[in-house]
Amino acid sequence: MTENELIWRLAGGSGDGIDSTSQNFAKVLMRSGLHVFTHRHYPSRIRGGHTYAELRSKATPVRSRGDGYNFLLALGDSFARSPDEEAYYGNEEVKPLVENLDDLRDGGIIVYDEGLIDIDDVDSVLETSLEALAAEHDWHVYPLDLRDIATDHGREVMRNTAGVGATAALISLDLDPIEALMSDSMSGDALEANLTILEAAYDQVRDEHEIDHDVVLPEGTHEEAPVLLSGSHGVAYGALDAGCRFISGYPMTPWTEVFTILSQHLPEYGGVSEQVEDEIAAAGMAIGASHAGVKAMSGSSGGGFALMSELLGTAEMTETPVVFVEAMRGGPSTGMPTKPEQGDLDHVLYSSQGDSNRIVFAPGTIEECYEQTRRAFELAYEYQLPAIVIIDQKLSGEYRTVPDSVFTESAPDPDPGTVLTEEEIEDAAHHASGSYLRFQYDTDDGVVPRTLPGQKGGRFLTTGNEHNPAGHISEDPENRRQQVDRRRAKQETIREVLDETGTHQTRYGAEDARYGILVWGSQQSTVFEAVDRLNETDNSVSALGVSEMMPFPESEVADFLESVEEAVVVEMNSDGQFRGLVQRELGAYGNRLSSLLKYDGNPFEPAEVVDGVRAVITDDPGVTPPTTRLEPTKATNSR
Amino acid sequence: MSAFNAIGADQEVDTDAFTPGVEPRATWCPGCGDFAVLKTLKQAMVERGKNPDEVLLVTGIGCSGKLSSYFESYGFHSIHGRSLPVARAATLANPDLEVVAAGGDGDGYGIGGNHFTHTARENHDMTYIVFNNEIFGLTKGQTSPTSPKGHKSKTQPSGSAKNPIRPLEWGLNAGATYIARTAAVNPRQATEILVEAMDHDGFAHVDFLTQCPTWNKDAKQYVPYIDVQDSEDFEFDVHDRDEAAQMMRETDTRLHEGEILTGRFFVEEGRPSYSEEKRQTGQMPDKPIVEQYFDEDAEWKPSSDLLDRHR
């Protein structure tokens, strides 16, 4: 039997307060003892356009969207209405209702604002009646004039509060935690009006409607104190605790979220945030700040990251530690600014001229965003090379409950990495001229400690040109080989360090599985949920969530692939970039790997993964979900 | 207790201290104006009592970018057009450093023009030297942003159809608070101007005319030059933005006609530098950010202090 869950979808116009209302409601559910996962869907517009937020809530930890949902609160799109006339632009205002019916589960609840949504318009758009559809699917429909309730006691924009009050009445949620939360964030007349509206809507539902549905609020308690936050918070807080005290950036969706959080808090943490003229400057400034000794970060999304390419190579050549974030969205070019995609993996791995020498982590969860951002700083500053944390619009913007211990377990890390102190500089090797030999060949792990401008006796030259041990430009072949080999050695060193101290791959599912799923980044949680479902029938599937993109965890991935007969690589792009990486790194398994790809702007839902994997298992492409593409094994590329 | 004791160290230095022992002879052509920048920069450092370990010289790409190879200090030879972002971040990380950025006219007024505009606008406490030879030298003589209209080169065989950039007015409009032009042929004035530029508490823009004897032969050696402060023909107040703008316009127009005017063109005293603005508005700590990594008593606030808003 499926566990009791509430999946609440709040649909309305972009600009109707969907985000804030859903986040507040998520917090209420969290405070009521439940685990919550939020998904938001929105177009790239400030106002207008249909949008929704979805909360999935259970008594046990919830890590992804469900399949469909069971409670629709359709506010109607208030911005579809001309403010001057009472005229509507076509039937836009009914879209939050009619466009969400496909995913509503049988037995689900519909609440809609009949103040904005005219049932005749709904029926004409549907080309059938809502009543008939409801009868067919056992939907329980509650029309309420939310606008009327809101304007009666306050202002029209408070319709969402009325909707929340109605929701509470329909799922038997106590109003106390909602009122407490409202009191935290509002005061005066606004608070009074909202409280009145909340109660009025609650009472109206209770008084005027017979409640005859089966959807109820789950009951639960938290074993550990939870917090509700996003992957962007995970990255930003990881950076703070890694000792990052400088960020430079230029706004671009969805990277802006990480940039905003750090910009708000860095000054109170003794750091500096810089919004600058372009991403080239942003990358250059992070490198400049780091060269001067500050742990620094920059980042962008695909297009902005492209502008950073040349300086990324400069960080590699000058051995300047720095951390970049790449928050992917649909590409190429401007692509789909507010839609998630995993199409920038190759871009992040190989961008910039010359060989690549960097660390790339792709965290799969909020917890991993925090941990891997910390690790990225630690390794970048220890081994003096750029580290990139690659996330996407799904992970960056989804709020979920996680235990607060994730953020409290280890203390902040003020270690500036392999940097000499002035005392150590005195004993270090210098050129006869007095300059420090920053790029000596003779090291075990490829790393020569840095000195920082202003340190006595530490002066050196660094350059984006190939250079000799003293940092001066050199095109001597022997020196070139020595320097390339030394820098390259860092990759092996880091691989060994990760293998010894703990890697960032997550294995999930059956022990002796016959089938495997390889997944990276934000799709990990969805795949794990799919694994649970696939294993309900015959326990034959196991997944490996891979986070270390460079240096690549060859043996871990190879061991996993050796342990299964066949594997499906699940990713949100159309090239199968991660599958390509696996093949490139391992040079084998071509006859065992197929790809399940999705690139329509929406992340995978668990059922799509289930069906896609079944298509591979049963060798029946006919069951592949229409929203995805299955690319079969490349037998010619076999071992 | 600072971890950066070269800064402000009481130390007698001469120009030899800024001469690296490691690099072979400069690769600049005989008669190149770039030698004068190197020489006067060393002299200006000595006159300011600076030592090589407290100076960060960030250069771009081009003949001018080689400056950091021949100048002994902390050096960052960056990439084409990007010296200013690297340099200005260093002033934020450690405001007590003596930060100088340098590059050519293609580097600063062409590919890096956006950074020039915004670094000047932000008024970072640093000095930017633009080697202006009105040509791309290292890549063998192509037309540059400051080349005169009609300039012929292999990439502009019929002559440039563009008017040249007017760097002085650009710097003024962008927000630089010290703007001067000097010439390689006048090392005395150049040294004085570099000393003033580094003393200046804000973004100092020095357009340094450096003749290119190899690729810009037909053009000028920038002689004779006129120092606008010494000449009685020019009356204007360097502290007056409007008068400065007018003088700059005339100066660049005359440059294109072959007459060389040099000197100080604009000085704005009293406008806080960017670091100062940020400190005053609570966006930057009083102590250099970098010091906290070496201060055992520094407090490292955990991110968990922010969790209440998520409960």
TrEMBL record, chain A:
GO terms for molecular function: 2-oxoglutarate synthase activity. One of its GO terms (biological process) is organic acid metabolic process. The keyword Ubl conjugation does not apply. Residues 15-203 form the Pyruvate/ketoisovalerate oxidoreductase catalytic domain. It comes from the Archaea. Its EC number is 1.2.7.3. Coiled coil: none annotated. It catalyses: 2 oxidized [2Fe-2S]-[ferredoxin] + 2-oxoglutarate + CoA = succinyl-CoA + 2 reduced [2Fe-2S]-[ferredoxin] + CO2 + H(+). Residues 473-483 have a biased composition (Basic and acidic residues). CDD domains: TPP_PYR_PFOR_IOR-alpha_like. Keywords: Oxidoreductase. Residues 513-586 form the Pyruvate:ferredoxin oxidoreductase core domain. Residues 238-484 form the Pyruvate flavodoxin/ferredoxin oxidoreductase pyrimidine binding domain. Residues 460-483, 618-639 are annotated as: Disordered. The keyword Oxidoreductase applies. PANTHER family: 2-OXOGLUTARATE OXIDOREDUCTASE SUBUNIT KORA, PYRUVATE-FLAVODOXIN OXIDOREDUCTASE-RELATED. Heterotetramer of the KorA, KorB, KorC and KorD subunits. This is 2-oxoglutarate synthase subunit KorA. It comes from Natrialba aegyptia DSM 13077.
TrEMBL record, chain B:
Residues 61-208 form the Thiamine pyrophosphate enzyme TPP-binding domain. GO terms for biological process: cellular respiration; organic acid metabolic process; sulfur compound biosynthetic process. Keywords: Oxidoreductase, Pyruvate. It comes from the Archaea. The keyword Lipoprotein does not apply. One of its GO terms (molecular function) is thiamine pyrophosphate binding. Residues 140-166 are annotated as: Disordered. PANTHER family: 2-OXOGLUTARATE OXIDOREDUCTASE SUBUNIT KORB (PTHR48084:SF4), 2-OXOGLUTARATE OXIDOREDUCTASE SUBUNIT KORB-RELATED (PTHR48084). This is Pyruvate ferredoxin/flavodoxin oxidoreductase subunit beta.
